[in-house]
Amino acid sequence: MLITGGTGMLGQALIRLYSSQYNIRFLGRNAALGEQVATHYNATFLAVDLSDIETLKTSCQHIDVVVHCAALSSPWGKKSDFEIANVQGTQNILLAAEKAKVKKFIHISTPSLYFDFKSQIAIKETQPLPNTFCNDYATTKAQAEQCVLNSSLTSVILRPRGIFGPQDRAIAPRLLNFIKNKTLILPSARDPLIDLTYVDNVADAIILAIKSDCKSGLVFNITNGQPAHIQSLLTVLLDALAPNTKIKGLNYYAVSVLVKLNQWVHRFIFNNKEPRLTDYSAALLHYDQTLDITKAQKELGYQPKITIKEGIIRYAKWHKNPTI
If phi over 0 gives left and psi between -120 and 50 gives alpha, with beta otherwise, what is residue 82? Predict the structure, then answer.
């Protein structure tokens, strides 16, 4: 198995859980961390950039399955950077995998493709996607999916929602950063219903997709199957990491106007520096969004093993004492 993005949260979970069962080779941008992970889990690390097509071809030699986790996943950035990482990077690893005659290609996509700045419940994989995507990340991930579907490789596409767990340096840290004077300030007073997915459950879904004999090109939603209101989830997280913190929601519509203005300032005056909050990030904390995972349950046999609460507790433990 070859994993791209092997030094990221999902890549590391896959290595941690399955290195004893699979011969794992992985790519990553963080060379020092890659060597640590490789040594700890008896895997093989290759410091290969997805722009290096020739080295990618060598990396794919004698590999049965490629799991493509690597992506530029951020609510902010230059459009060209997203295109290079998410579209060109996917095209390059597909080309290398085709050349090496890899048997299966597992592509990790995103349910950000569904997001349309409105509440949506129990979204199925067949739901039409918006005419205009919510940001450059979603736009380029949609293009990457199309690259996979156009490939001659046997493929499966997974869209995991809100991945969190050990090594999470995005969702939880961003939320905790909004705590001021024992109060967590949210951009909305609504308490939206959302889905999250503990990272180990996504890793399990990947293995099920590898083992599955489902037809090529199928897309599967992946979540914990436990839709919950965001404040109840935050309460568990805060109890573990910031006790006695209160949650305060602001008027979303007033905030959204200020956020859009602030984005413009950061884009054109502050040389594209990332603002603390984007309109997409604010909207995620205002609108309901849950996914239907019936298809993954029926066709892959997917059943989340780690509950949301247990996952949050595990993340909090790791946050206090980070390890690989």
Answer: alpha
| C-alpha to C-alpha distance for 11 and 1, rounded to whole angstroms | 12
The answer to whether 195 and 222 are in contact (CB under 8 A) is no
Domain chopping of the chain, boundaries: 2-320
CA distance 145 to 134: 16
Which whole-number Å values give the CA distances from 5 to 34, 103, 122, 202, in the listed order? 10, 20, 29, 14
Tokens of 166: 């050990």
What pLDDT does residue 168 have?
93
Enumerate the H helices of the chain as residue ranges: 9-18, 31-41, 53-59, 79-82, 89-99, 136-150, 171-176, 199-211, 230-241, 252-268, 279-284, 294-299, 308-320
CB 123, CB 221: distance < 8 Å? yes
Tell me how far apart the alpha carbons of residues 6 and 11 are, in angstroms, rounded to a whole number. 4
Residue-wise burial string across 80-99, b where 16 or more C-beta atoms lie within 10 A, e elsewhere: eebbebbbbbbbbbbbbbee
Residue type, 219: V
State how far the alpha carbon of 53 is from the alpha carbons of 151, 240, 305, in Å. 16, 45, 37
pLDDT on residue 70? 98
Q: What is the pLDDT of residue 182?
A: 96
CA distances from 73 to 70, 129, 139, 315 (A): 9, 19, 12, 20
Grade residue 126 by pLDDT with cuts at 50, 70 and 90: very high
Q: Quick one: how many helices (H) and strands (E) in the chain?
A: 13, 16
Cβ(107)–Cβ(142) below 8 Å: no
Could you say which architecture CATH assigns to the domain 2-320?
A: 3-Layer(aba) Sandwich (3.40)
